[in-house]
Specification:
The chain is an alpha+beta fold and 78 residues long. The chain has a single domain, classed as 3-Layer(aba) Sandwich (Rossmann fold). It is 38% helix and 10% strand. Strands 1-2 form a two-stranded parallel sheet. The longest helix has 12 residues.
Length: 78
């Protein structure tokens, strides 16, 4: 899809967020949430702003040559 739409000037990319501070995650018990954070190399979950900044970059002219990419935004956890 990305290659086909690129010929029309449309860039398709994907953002794959890891554990993010969101209502479902924040409603988990502390023990479960702490265990999940401990499994992330950076040691914490992402903020929604951090995920949004990646999306904003991909929508900006600075990423004009980025097409068909999957950006893992997961604090080093693959």
């Amino acid at each position: 899809m990305a290659a086909e739409l690129a010929t029309q000037g449309i860039r398709c990319n994907a953002v794959l967020p890891g554990l993010t501070e969101s209502p479902p995650v924040l409603s988990m018990g502390n023990e479960r949430r702490n265990a999940l954070c401990a499994s992330i190399p950076i040691g914490r979950m992402a903020t929604t702003r951090e995920i949004a900044e990646v999306v904003a970059f991909l929508c900006s002219p600075e990423s004009s040559y980025v097409v068909g990419a999957a950006w893992v935004v997961a604090g080093g956890k693959q």
